[in-house]
Amino acid sequence: MLSKPEMIVRRPAQPQRGIESPEYFGRVVFDWKWWNCCFPCEQFMSVKDDQDRELYSLRRAVCCSMTDGCCVNVCAPSCCNIVHRTYIEKHGEKVGSMTYIWPGWNVRGVCQGNSAADNFALIYPADADVRAKSLLLAGLMLQNFVYWERRTNQNQNGGYSGGYHSS
To answer: What pLDDT, on the 0 to 100 scale, is given for residue 159?
Structure first.
């Protein structure tokens, strides 16, 4: 992959708290494995600290998983499979999860109701500190951007529908 999706996390300067310059927390980067060319059903993102050491791995099964078996996350999130799950792993062990939850049998869940709102739940690992939680939240946002984000304003009138849109 030539241009991997990546999100960098920095805390802005806060002179009132004694933090005079921006502070780099780390980054989340799409971790393309060599076998993803032939088997793209399990994808990974790497959560790295400020020293570029991997803290966690985000493992997303698209359909078949070597770890979880077949039919994982198929048609999710929908009425057929309510939750799409991404596992937070440390040294190959599941320590937390990120879930994208179908909103249910309502206008937003059935027809998307012209809404860009999503339902997410993030279960942090027990050992995660504030910096690690910031990076994991960035990982959730990066996954949302890469896999789920659709702009409601992509239509035939020049791309602007007059409402709120993400960029």
So the answer is: 46
Alpha helices in the chain (DSSP H): 107-111, 130-143
- pTM score of the predicted model: 0.77
**Percentage above 90 pLDDT, the chain:** 37
What is the H or E stretch that residue 94 is in? Answer: strand 93-101
- Calpha distance 99→79 (Å, rounded): 15
DSSP states of 102-124 as a string?
Answer: ---SSHHHHHGGG----EEEEE-
Greater model confidence, 150 or 125: 125
Q: What's the rounded Cα separation, in Å, for the pair 26 and 52?
A: 7
What is the CA 58 to chain-centroid distance, rounded?
A: 8
pLDDT tens digits, residue range 7-37?
999 989 999 988 889 999 999 999 877 766 7
Structure tokens at 143: 């996954």
Of 32, 37, 28, residue with least CA distance to 9:
28
